[in-house]
Amino acid sequence: MNTCIPRLAALSAALLIAGPALAKGGYAEALYTDFANMSEGAVGVEIKARASGPLDTLAGRDMASLTGLPTHTVVVDEDSDFRLPKAGFHEVNMEDVYLDDLATRVDVFAKIGYPLELGDYRLLDVAIQIGEHKLHHTAIEFCWNTLSHCVVFDPNIDFLDSQVNSWRTAKAEGWGMQIHEEPALDLGDGLSQAKARCGLASNPSVTSRKYTRGARTVRYKSLAQLVVVTKNIGYVEAGLRCDSSCRPGPFAIANTSSGAALAPNSIACGNRTNSGISGGRGKSVAKSGCSHRFVLGAKFSATAKGVGLSADVQIDATGSVDSNGTSYIDTCGRY
Fold first, then answer.
1. Could you tell me the pTM of the whole model?
2. Quick one: pLDDT at residue 195?
């Protein structure tokens, strides 16, 4: 999942939530907690409210005047290690920032059924910790407690609400990394007829293991509750099985991903597997995903590269990426 600065539709998507709001003062905390959980600990988040009040006092104000212009974006990269995603800060090139996003006025809420006089706001200081680096930026939470609705606009995290709510839905449906194993094989040595067990070096009691991630759907929605971008991310698996001669047999599956985007948005998808063997060791890799941009030019190219234990699937993407992926490396041996 890579993040970038979007156009007006992205601002709308960041302001829309898919589920019921939490009690006043708790929505943003839960949202950012789950954003950190999505990164498997690669991103740490702290938020603190520095101002609050009735929403109608902000009538006529645009998002830029409330949060300021972003100087960096937060990017979570799952491509290198799917069990330990990496994250980083990307510096914003102001030529790539679509100012009409930040020019949207608070008054837009009244047009979609959330009167300003019934709402409250909290201006948030957001601290993102990635490794030894910590950067601060401003976001804003809007809540209509009598209408059970809250939204957060964060100009530094692409589609924050949609990202988190899609992840919550997928988790509730059982999506996530799954591990499947088979018991080790008992083999005769051909001489003394003594039994030897063929298993994996990581766990000699099993002869096969695979890591899987189920298919999932990610939707980015506008303020008018139109689905601006839909991504159907394909199922992936990567594993290793020791054969009857205790030799490694890596295997992988990466089902096709697909998507749709309202013009002028663009979307591109791809999928690929790769595997390799070196002696008694084997490696398998599977990746499938889509990238979107709010202009033409989205790109997602998955290419198998490398041989042996250097086998990999490299992603060349332009835009904001959502993907499924997994990889596995192990050794077959007699124990």
1. 0.78
2. 59
